[in-house]
Amino acid sequence: MTDPGPAGRGRMKLAARCRVATEAPAFGMGVFCLILLNAALMGAETYSGLAGEHRLLLHTAEQACLALFSLEMVLRIGAFADRPKAFFRDPWNLFDLAVVASAFVPFVRENTTLLRLLRLARVLRTARFLPHLRILLIAVGRSLPGTASFLFVGGLVLYVYAMVGWVCFAESDPGHYGSVGRAMLTLFLLTTLDGLTDAVRAGLQISRLSILYYASYALLASFVLVNVLIGVVLNSLDEAREMEDAERRDPKRPGSPPPAGAGPDASGANAPGTDVRERIATARRALDDLEASLPAADPRTDRRLEASHSGP
């Protein structure tokens, strides 16, 4: 049977070297500038005159960016050579790998539109190097369940008011309330309060009670529901900020590599024993504090207790 030790040490050395390179500030800044350069090249391709005159130069620059992105991913994967599964636990690693690897898929390379969209996704990788932008993206993702509930309630309110508007204004204003679909479209545009003045004036020519219809809709749709949506987003933003702070405080979070040059125990192999020792130390400190907080005993009481225990 062969000894797996040398292979394991080799992977650890490779991971340590790649980790030193990827964790260097210059590496992150270089990748960030490369992403911005790739975005600038995509913007230059939208000008037909510039793209036609410098087509070869733009193509060469794009291939160079792709080669550098591929080298970056090789280094990031190499940083997890000693723990391959940990690489796939990090969502940002999966996103980066999918964006870079998509350029080598035959079907994608042949589809110009799809390739440009996937190249555009590289711009989103800037969130990996901007903590505040990363927090915003996490907040948007966490707010999706609350946003779905908001959209359901908003659609329900919109449908009810559209039906009421169809009943009241279909004959006098068929262009805006001739059907429930037109009524919903009209009310949806009124959610931003744009054109509300003209709608109210047109409604007053039909009935003075229309002011109640438009005022209640504007209050409910434009103020109450919008504030609810803002509250959902702000709550998700606070949760995302707390998650980001917790990840910064916890160096042993899933998917994070151990410090450079650390052995296998640095990845959490001794975590259970360390946790038990920390609990024992915490219990000892609690007992010491409890003993210090007890009132001092009377010496006469101590002598009586000793006499009672000694007996005849």
Report on this model:
It is a single chain. This protein has 312 residues and is mostly helical. 76% of the residues lie in helices and 0% in strands. The protein is built from 16 helices and no strands. The chain has helices spanning 5-22, 25-44, 48-53, 55-78, 84-87, 91-101, 106-110, 112-121, 131-142, 144-169, 174-177, 180-190, 196-206, 210-249, 271-293, 299-310. It is flat, with a radius of gyration of 33 Å.
Instruction: Please provide the ordered H/E string of secondary-structure elements.
Output: HHHHHHHHHHHHHHHH
Identify the overall geometry: flat
Q: Which range best describes the helical content: under 10%, 10-25%, 25-40%, 40-55%, 55-70% or over 70%? A: over 70%
Largest sheet, strands/sense/barrel = none
Estimate the strand proportion: under 5%
What is the number of helical segments per DSSP (H or I, 4+ residues)?
Answer: 16
- Could you tell me the number of beta strands? 0
Secondary structure class reads mainly alpha
Mean model confidence by pLDDT: 77
Specify Rg, calculated over alpha carbons. 33 Å
List unreliable stretches of 5+ residues.
251-272
- How far apart, in Å, are the first and last alpha carbons? 75 Å
